[in-house]
Amino acid sequence: MSIEELARANVRELVPYQSARRLGGKGDVWLNANEYPQAVEFQLTAQTLNRYPECQPKAVIENYARYASVTPQQVLVSRGADEGIELLIRAFCEPGQDAVLFCPPTYGMYSVSAETIGVEYRTVPALEDWQLDLQGIADTLDGVKVIYVCSPNNPTGQIINPQDLRVLLEMTRGKAIVVADEAYIEFCPQASLVGWLSEYPHLVILRTLSKAFALAGLRCGFTLANEEVINLLMKVIAPYPLSTPVADIAAQALSTPGILAMRERVQQILDERQRLVEALQNIPCVEQVFPSETNYILVRITASSAVFKSLWDQGIILRDQNKQPSLSGCLRITVGTREESQRVIDALSAEKV
Ligand code: PMP
């Protein structure tokens, strides 16, 4: 047997997640991964690299619990929210038997994680306004153990109606876990479902330091849920999911001054987003600018593939969403610095319609 044939069938067929980094490009304006545009400085304080780290570093857990207004028992820290996505499938889905469900267009790792683990995934396309098709979900729920709802949604940028989430949570009580992916919640904190944890034992919330905390390179994310869920996830997580330097920096980022600095960054991005939206609305090749509650803007563009390529060749790297259901002609633009926005505005304005 060839090495290829030795691999699991689902892995042979797997199309890996096309992360912004994997897609490459030679740019000087990187607006394709919803990162914060500037690096924040940190000093390492922990020097005990001869020892294994704590599995769940106490300072990180306590600081995040304080920030999120939950108890430390309701927090799990992992290698990015991406690891949280995977842990939930590993803890709750029997391969070949249970399924996960999500509503495209949405974040791409839900399907990739399910496929890698060998768990079936089902999709119920979002409605025309990208809200949940609750009837469609109800009709597809048989055998579903985990439902991912990204709010605000990547890449469309809107918040999922809280009333619909209530209906979903009632519909799934005792049957499935509902995961609210709040990777971008710092840009619209009032929309968080964290206050609902006491009402719903099957609600799980994913968070990250990769966006508003400006730490995508740190790889640090959080799962918030009731203790029973956290204890199950603790069984399947790796023994040392975070390195000592990661825990060190994460604890600093979640200190009181760290959180204040994050809130200032959020305000700066929201101001810049407003400016970018207004400019985009006056550019001929831009057909539609969708409202955003996040640090990115989805736009529908005339001849989007050619425009995407043209900007790419000028070193401006955006994210092409054209292949996602209902997003034909759509590009996603991360809100970066004032200078980066200007480069995008100038380049798009120069495109002929
Ligand atoms: N969920 C969503 C909706 C995201 O956009 C991302 C980042 N691409 C993640 C989760 C993963 O975040 P992390 O960097 O913490 O793994």
Task: Write up what this structure looks like.
The protein has 353 residues and is of the alpha/beta class. It has two domains: 3-38 and 258-348, Alpha-Beta Complex (Aspartate Aminotransferase, domain 1), CATH 3.90.1150.10; 58-254, Type I PLP-dependent aspartate aminotransferase-like (Major domain) (Aspartate Aminotransferase, domain 2), CATH 3.40.640.10. The chain is 37% helix and 16% strand. The protein has a seven-stranded mixed sheet with strand order 2-8-7-6-5-3-4, sandwiched between helices. The model has no long low-confidence stretch (mean pLDDT 97). 4'-deoxy-4'-aminopyridoxal-5'-phosphate binds at residues 34, 80-82, 107, 150, 154, 181, 183, 208, 210, 216, 221.
